[in-house]
Design brief:
Blueprint lengths: L2 H88 L3 H21 L8 H28 L6 H19 L3 H20 L3 H19 L4 H101 L1
């Protein structure tokens, strides 16, 4: 084979190779474009999925935070009720300060709940709880003032006045050996304690009947006028003070019931909020799982399509190269 022949063959192969490259340029460009678009689409899908899932997780976090606030508020409410019960049982002023400290903390919690981004759906319940807490604080002060007026101890307030009146009458009767009058006083004192303990109005009637019986007994004994007037003054003072205490006790009992009703309303709204937030947490969790599964499947489908397209175009190029080499 001469040099000219070899040169000619090389020239023909070179020309054939150029023609093959020209013929493959468009498919290669398409293949590269498809691959790039597929990769960009896959990356975009993963990015969007990531943003949506992050938003779901953030929403879950906010609802969990709201749930935590709600449970903390429930705990504060129960502690407030405990402070209230302790005050009513012991009449110790320290529970007034404890109650107000807890109530202020509860209001701060409600304010924090309002600032939560997902709290818009429970805006009215949160406002209702805030108003109920403020109303409860005001009513608690009314109850404390009523307790103070009646007497936080047996020596203070109306209780102290009643105790002094009873002791004065008792000492006077004992000093003059008026045993039958002393018995009337002791009966009235028993009705007094029964009323304070049970707060039943029938004891007021029993007290009144006993006082009328005392007056008849006093007038029927034909005692010295000075003794009779003094004895009646002591008992009248005791009976008058008791009636004032009875009226204040019944009034206070109504105020305590109002306090309980206010807390009941607050507790009901809070319970509804807790139930709502609990349901929303479950919904958001399920939605997040659905989004993760959806984008995972979508990414897998796009990846499979990309591999199939790339493989198909690759096979096509191989065949074209094989044809060109022949």
């Amino acid at each position: 084979m001469t040099r000219a022949t070899v040169k000619q063959e090389l020239s023909e192969k070179s020309r054939g190779l150029r023609m093959l490259l020209l013929r493959l340029t468009q498919p290669i460009t398409r293949l590269v474009s498809v691959v790039i678009v597929g990769i960009l689409l896959l990356i975009g899908t993963l990015h969007i999925g990531s943003l949506i899932i992050q938003a779901d997780l953030q929403e879950q976090k906010e609802y969990h935070e709201l749930y935590g606030y709600s449970m903390n508020l429930l705990s504060k409410g129960l502690e407030m009720r405990r402070a209230e019960k302790n005050l009513l049982l012991t009449k110790q002023a320290q529970y007034l300060e404890q109650y107000h400290r807890l109530a202020r903390s509860a209001l701060i919690i409600v304010t924090s709940m309002k600032d939560n981004p997902v709290a818009q759906e429970i805006e009215k319940p949160l406002r209702d709880m805030s108003e109920a807490l403020q109303l409860h604080m005001q009513q608690f002060d009314v109850v404390f003032m009523g307790l103070s007026k009646i007497g936080l101890t047996e020596k203070s307030g109306l209780r102290g006045s009643l105790r002094n009146s009873a002791h004065d009458a008792e000492a006077y009767f004992k000093a003059h050996y008026a045993d039958s009058l002393l018995i009337s006083l002791l009966m009235m004192r028993r009705f007094e304690k029964d009323f304070i303990h049970r707060k039943q109005k029938n004891y007021l009637l029993l007290m009144n009947n006993q006082f009328e019986s005392f007056k008849k007994k006093l007038s029927g004994r034909k005692l010295p006028l000075k003794f009779e007037r003094k004895a009646l003054d002591y008992m009248a003072s005791y009976f008058r003070t008791f009636n004032i205490i009875a009226a204040e006790t019944l009034k206070l009992d109504n105020e305590i019931k109002k306090l309980a009703f206010i807390y009941k309303d607050f507790s009901l709204v809070l319970s509804n909020v807790i139930d709502f937030v609990d349901v929303e947490i479950k919904i958001v969790r399920l939605k997040s799982i659905e989004h993760m599964v959806m984008f995972k499947n979508l990414a897998a489908i796009l990846a499979i399509i990309l591999v199939l397209l790339t493989g198909g175009m690759g096979i096509f190029l191989v065949r074209q190269v094989s044809k060109g080499s022949k």
